[in-house]
Amino acid sequence: MKRFLPLCTAFFLTIQVSLAQTTSDQHQTVMINTAESQAFHFTGGLGVMIDAYSKALSASIKSRYPNMSVVVSMPFYMSFYDRAGLVESFTDEKRDIVVDLDYQFDANSQSMRSKRAETFHVYSKFVGERKVLFYRHMNRAGERNYFDNQVSPGERKRYAPDDLEKEAFAVYNKALAKDILLNQAEVKLVVENDWHSGMNAYYLKHPEFFGATARSMPKILGIIHNYAHQGEVYDDSFMDRLGIDRRDFHQEGVAHGAPELGKQDHLNFLKMLLNYSDMTATVSAQHALEVLNPAFGKSLEGTNNRNALQFKKTGALNGIDYQVWNPETASEFILQAQNNEPGRSTVDFPIEEYNFNESDLSGKAKGKAFLQKFFKLPVYSDAMVLSFTSRLDVQKGYRYIPDALVTALTANPYLQVIIIGDGPDDYRLPIIELQKRFPHQLRFEKYSSLKEHLLVSYSDASGNFSEHEPSGQVHTAAMRMFTVPFATALGGHAEAIVDGVTGLLTHTYLHDDAKTVNAEMTGKRVQQLIHQAFSLYQNDRTRWNEMVLNVGGEDFSWQNQIEHHLDLIEFTLKNGPSALHAALGNAPSGVVLKPSQLLELWNAAQTGSVDHCSSILHGFVADAIK
Fold first, then answer.
1. What's the CA angle centered on 409, arms 408 and 412, to 5 degrees?
2. How far apart (Å, rounded) are the C-alpha atoms in residues 80 and 120?
3. Degrees (nearest 5) of the Cα angle 44, 443, 507?
4. Looking at residue 620, what is its pLDDT?
5. For 242, what's the count of Cα atoms within 13 Å in the CB-facing half-sphere?
6. Which of 377, 455, 512, 591 could form a disulfide with 387 if both were Cys (CB 3.0 to 4.6 A apart)?
7. In terms of DSSP H, where are the helices of 197-284?
8. 432-438: average pLDDT
């Protein structure tokens, strides 16, 4: 027992310092660093999540930290000028952040000296109680703005010119880190999101770049929403351009190599986020466990396992906005559809009759008829309408979904499928061919937020058969709207859906090497699940209706989910990973604890009994195995 005493002593000193730092009477902030926000510019689900998460966190953070508020930081995009009055509504923070670039070795000083500098000007705007900071690249005349993301109609949304994107986020994050370390001492925690923020984590851990001290460094919580996008740079000169210390070019620093994928050592922004954050999380505990394996870790499974052993890995489901997703106001989507696309479908009775709840689902049935007319499908009340709303790409299962639908639609003539999405021709053209082959059963249209809201609200079922899926929010939004989710048992799907009770799940099959998805076998199982669901809908409506009511009874609101995120924030602010690792050594291999479990373990450790902490830890592990 004596051998634990030095560790425990160090542990409690850490606790005392951490508590002193987080119970100050001074105003403090949690900063959420993001590439996008639905309120200003977004390309997908990240922007939607950031807005809802920051709103929920702002409303709840004072329950644990009375003097703490929430700030969001993001780039200033040139597309802001396309929205009348938006830029004029910003407040000028009246400060410039200058960052050095293009470093070269200077023989006289025997050190690296920069040959160029870029300037960012800071603006702000309040959204509710949340302050949003915008960092505008002040490009010189004749040079491109890093975040010139203006596009012509029909072009895909983007953050920056394709050839500048990595440099744009790297320099933005360097400017943000400098601003935090020198001008925003009240920032105690930075919540970094995805590869776009990896360089910020690196620079915050290197305050010497800006003449700052380690004492001014905030804690860093890295949240990874999708391992498929990592921000990879193979240009060796990039390090000197940004001033990255070449001594940090190693596997526990900024470098990443994946020889099995034919990738030589290179910069990987997502790996920087994993390596330099004090705590990391995915958007579901199930996915945090999955990314320990090659099939889902996307070549970063080694780093994920190392973090898990150090109590530095967890997962927490995102919530959904119950004001947006509300069956008792769903008629607003019908009204918007009528106003935005008149003539596609008409309403013959008061709009309020399209609302519904668990006591009266007749409004959902009326909305389904509207949906069928809107998408030019036959109006059959006995038809089962299955919708898909996602990107058309490998991750979302479009290697096998078209073939699975061919079999399902052929066997079940009263099955109707509506797909909205955007993607490359490799995945878009097969869906267009399906529509030609099944004109009375399948419709495909370009994605829009309004169409997604209509489909999720009034379909019978919502499909998401991804090859890998951190969480996603369509399935939980569908459940809120009494729409039965069908999904692969991955990530947030497996965590939120109880197979046969609140939806239907199928397995994702791997090849024998356990490193890649077996698309053929997975596709066959997807087809079988759709056929099973259709048979249930047609032949056992009593059981189907029970499932519909079960689905609507779940609670995935941000109000309910935010406590898990507060646990995660508290654990990070208390220096939880380092403290638990110092007290208990490595965590059990292949285990990822939930935020509440990590916090409970930290609190229990304050008694000074390592045996007690170990007993609790073993209990968590035993429950996970069950």
1. 85
2. 16
3. 65
4. 87
5. 27
6. 455
7. 198-204, 238-242, 269-276
8. 97
Residues with Cβ within 8 Å of residue 555, at least 6 apart in sequence: none
Report CA-CA distances (Å) from 111 to 105, 212, 244, 532: 6, 19, 13, 68
Question: Using one digit for the tens of pLDDT, what is the confidence trace for 80-101?
Answer: 999 999 999 999 999 999 999 9
Q: At 322, is the pLDDT very low, low, confident or very high (cuts 50, 70, 90)?
A: very high
CB 383, CB 374: distance < 8 Å: no
Q: What is the DSSP secondary structure assignment for residue 502, as one 8-state letter?
A: S
The pTM (predicted TM-score) of the whole model is: 0.90
- Name the class of domain 2-315: alpha beta
Mean confidence (pLDDT) of the chain: 91
Strands 484-488 and 263-268 turn out to be unpaired
331: amino acid identity, one letter? S
Q: Which neighbouring-strand residues pair with 91?
A: 124
Tokens 């379909």 — which residue? 459
Q: What is the pLDDT of residue 2?
A: 31
d(CA 527, CA 73): 44
Residue with tokens 């890295």: 222
Range(s) of the chain covered by CATH 3.40.50.2000? 2-315, 327-555
Answer yes or no: CATH 3.40.50.2000 is held by domain 327-555.
Answer: yes
Please, are residues 613 and 584 in contact by the beta-carbon 8 Å criterion? yes
Tokens 């399948």 belong to residue: 442
Tell the residue number behind the tokens 């160029």, with chain if given: 116
Residues 214-245: tens digit of each pLDDT: 777 999 999 999 998 999 999 989 999 999 99
In 3D space, the residue among 134, 140, 146 whose CA is nearest the CA of residue 171 turns out to be 146
| Token representation of residue 455 | 């489909």
